[in-house]
Design goal:
With about 725 residues, the chain is α/β, with parallel strands linked by helices. It is built from 23 helices and 20 strands.
Length: about 725
């Protein structure tokens, strides 16, 4: 299972090689032949990688081969990144590293022949590794708890007289939420049976194969196989079967969002009598929008009361009228872990059936959900299917969820910064927009929830079951280290740590180190600067953290740094020499007065976030020549005559919130040579007037003015802008 991420990593390396920016770097150093050989070897390995991932569970030697491959692929990513970065600085590279990677991959490629692996195809970046369990229409109504309201809402739609010849009602929800169960309840309802002359049930092929779908409908209607017929004969037979009949058709578990195939099927089904209905169950809101003629019925989790009722049915013998109070109390805690997902409630209940040992119940109660998901083989494939259907580039993005704690509230912009720094956003333009699109795609696939859209930023959470899946998928790459963790694998690439171990310097391959919110961390060991592969370091929310190490410039690969510190200046930390740093976040640095002075080599820093820093802070903006995005939230900058900032010309997106200095900052923007593309002002009572110069920025695409109480009018020229896509103002007059 863990190696299912490997194909995505291989695709990422190949994507890097193919990128125009990398090809330019290759030309600079004249290593075209070596990179071409590397690509050929990678192509040969990637062709059989899907088959290897499927077979590795039964072959220990194959597991070891995949593990070696994984390490080399990560090394290849590091070397290719280094080549691209050094080309920008016109420095000499270590060609030997490229040669070593190429030779190691060549050996691994030769070794693959001993496993008799087959070439597997990829459909639009979607990997299909296993067939899923087929569904059927029968249901024991007593097995379903807490879905009466959902059932009645759908039946109400079915009973409505509809002018449309064919109506489609989508049911949407994450895997295990009970979409199929509700469809069965509706399908078998007596009133529904009286309403429709014919009832048909088909478990849909994953790829929406039209021939297989028609065969399924015909077989359910007649009880006879029609696999020997061609597509012309099948469509004739289908139209004859449903002609002038009012039918209810359930298309269960639809994955494909191929609109053309759907329209073909829909055209054939219009032979039925007016008032015929289709119920579609899917995990994808995109599928629902393509197929539905009615708004989707989004399935929510069970209430705690209903979850407990379902749990009792599966955990206790029904003959036992009064279960033991101590077990019921632990069961209550176990049910809370399930967050209303019926499949998870049912599965954990079945694990406990006929077991009355308190230690075993305590083990289930105290275990991480992801470990229980992994142990129960009939549960894992359900959420895993959603992962298997993700395009390769989204699989690695999805795996990053495992680094953050359960219940964490994600922001699309911060995730985008992480994905960009990790090379997971490949677009060379509109990168911030790409991160929003990635998040929306995960949303459409029901892999995230509680999504709120506030202007250009999405906030959301991940269901525990989905978080468990991310943890399983990424477990060979991520170490989640608690206070009781005894050992961290030196092979770990990403770490989320509650406690910083003394052996941190041994984690030479670590790329991400997440210490956010660690209230016990008072000092970072100097040895942390030995982690030269580290790309992302999260120290925000470490409110007791004193001085940063003085040699942070040795973190030569660092691209993202967020920090909370009690220091007055970061001059001695050396962060101003982090040449590859792309994002710097200062969060809650209440004592900070000077970011740094003098020489600055932050030539890649494109985003600076200053949050809850009361300073005032002196920041040499003029030295940050690559800066594009600046966020100032509830913070104070040094704005004296001697220290007025001169913003770099590349700055295109300023965002100012809860600032008493908003008018002074805007004046500084006017005096700088910026070409603004987006302009954000939030919750600033002292923002009294939109600058007259703002309409001069012809590249403006977004203007957001939110809850600025004293803002009363817009300058005349603002409406004459030709480029803006959105002008949003929420003004309390």
């Amino acid at each position: 299972m863990a190696e299912s991420l490997l194909f995505s990593i291989a695709q990422g390396v190949l994507g890097k090689i193919a990128s125009p920016a990398f090809q330019e770097a290759v030309a600079v150093y004249g290593v075209e032949d070596q990179i071409h050989e590397l690509k050929d070897t990678m192509d040969a390995i990637a062709a059989v990688l899907l088959d290897a991932e499927e077979q590795q569970a039964k072959n220990h030697r194959l597991q070891l081969w995949l593990r070696r491959l994984r390490d080399v692929l990560y090394d290849a990513e590091d070397v290719l990144d280094e080549l691209e970065c050094e080309a920008l600085r016109k420095r000499v590279i270590n060609r030997r590293k490229i040669k070593e990677i190429r030779e190691t991959l060549s050996k691994i490629s030769v070794e693959k022949n001993q496993f008799d692996l087959n070439v597997r195809s990829v459909d639009n970046g979607v990997v299909h590794l296993r067939s899923r369990e087929m569904t059927y229409s029968f249901i024991n109504k007593l097995d379903v708890v807490g879905r009466e309201s959902d059932k009645e809402k759908i039946i109400e739609i079915l009973m409505q007289s509809d002018r449309k010849n064919l109506s489609v009602i989508p049911i949407v929800g994450i895997g295990g939420m009970g979409k199929t169960a509700i469809a069965k309840l509706v399908y078998n309802d007596d009133n529904v049976k009286e309403q429709f002359e014919s009832g048909l049930w088909v478990c849909m092929p994953e790829d929406f194969d039209l021939k297989k779908t028609i065969e399924g409908i015909i077989k359910d209607a007649t009880g006879q196989s029609s696999s020997n017929l061609d597509i012309q004969q099948l469509q004739t037979s289908l139209r004859y079967i449903i002609k002038d009949k009012k039918f209810l058709l359930v298309l269960d578990d639809v994955w494909s969002n191929d609109r053309s195939r759907w329209e073909e099927l829909k055209a054939l089904l219009t032979e039925g009598e007016s008032g015929s209905k289709i119920i579609v169950t899917t995990r994808s809101s995109k599928v629902a929008s393509i197929t539905g003629t009615h708004p989707a019925h989004n399935l929510r989790g069970l209430s705690h009361e209903d979850s407990m009722a379902l749990f009792k049915k599966w955990a206790f013998d029904q003959k036992e009228k009064h279960p033991r109070p101590d077990l019921l109390e632990m069961g209550d805690d176990i049910v809370k872990k399930c967050q209303g997902v019926p499949l998870l409630v049912k599965t954990l209940g079945s694990l406990l059936f006929a077991k009355d040992e308190v230690p075993y119940w305590a083990h289930i109660r105290d275990s991480e959900v992801w470990k229980l998901v992994e142990e129960k083989e009939d549960l894992l494939p359900v959420p895993k299917l959603s992962y298997d259907h993700l395009p390769s580039h989204l699989k690695r993005c999805f795996a990053t969820f495992s680094l953050f704690p359960r219940g964490f509230e994600f922001r699309s912009d911060r995730l985008g910064a992480l994905w960009m720094a990790s090379g997971l956003i490949s677009s060379t333009t509109e990168k911030e927009d790409s991160s929003v699109e990635y998040v929306k795609e995960l949303w459409k696939r029901s892999l995230i929830q509680q999504v709120e859209e506030s202007e250009s930023i999405l906030t959301f959470k991940v269901h525990d079951l989905v978080h468990s899946l991310a943890t399983i998928v990424a477990r060979n790459d991520c170490s989640i280290v608690g206070l009781d963790t005894e050992e961290i694998s030196e092979r770990a690439r990403n770490g989320s740590l509650e406690e910083l171990p003394s052996s941190i310097c041994n984690l030479k391959q670590l790329r991400t180190l997440l210490l956010s919110g660690n209230k016990r961390l008072k000092k970072l060991p100097d040895t942390i600067c030995e982690l030269q592969s580290l790309l992302h370091l999260y120290l925000d929310g470490c409110s007791e953290l004193g001085e940063l190490p003085k040699n942070m410039q040795r973190l030569v690969s660092l691209r993202l740094l967020t920090v909370t510190t009690k220091q007055k200046s970061l001059q001695e930390s050396g962060i101003q020499y982090l040449e590859n740093l792309q994002l710097l976040g200062l969060d809650g640095c209440q004592n900070l007065q000077v970011l740094f002075e003098g020489t600055c080599r932050l030539t890649c820093l494109r985003r600076l976030e200053i949050v809850n820093c009361r300073g005032p802070i002196s920041i040499p903006f003029v030295e940050l020549t690559a800066l594009q995005i600046l966020e100032i939230f509830d913070s104070k900058l040094m704005l004296t005559e001697e220290n007025k900032p001169i913003f770099p010309s590349n700055l295109h997106t300023p965002a100012i919130s809860k600032s008493e200095q908003v008018m002074e900052l805007l004046q500084c923007l006017d005096q700088s040579a910026c070409k603004l593309e987006s302009f954000y002002v939030y919750d600033c009572p002292s923002f009294t007037a939109i600058p007259e110069w703002l309409p001069n920025h012809s590249h403006l695409r977004y203007i957001f003015l939110i809850r600025c109480l004293k803002l009363s009018s817009m300058p005349q020229g603002i409406q004459s802008l030709t480029r803006p896509q959105r002008i949003t103002s929420r003004i309390l007059w």
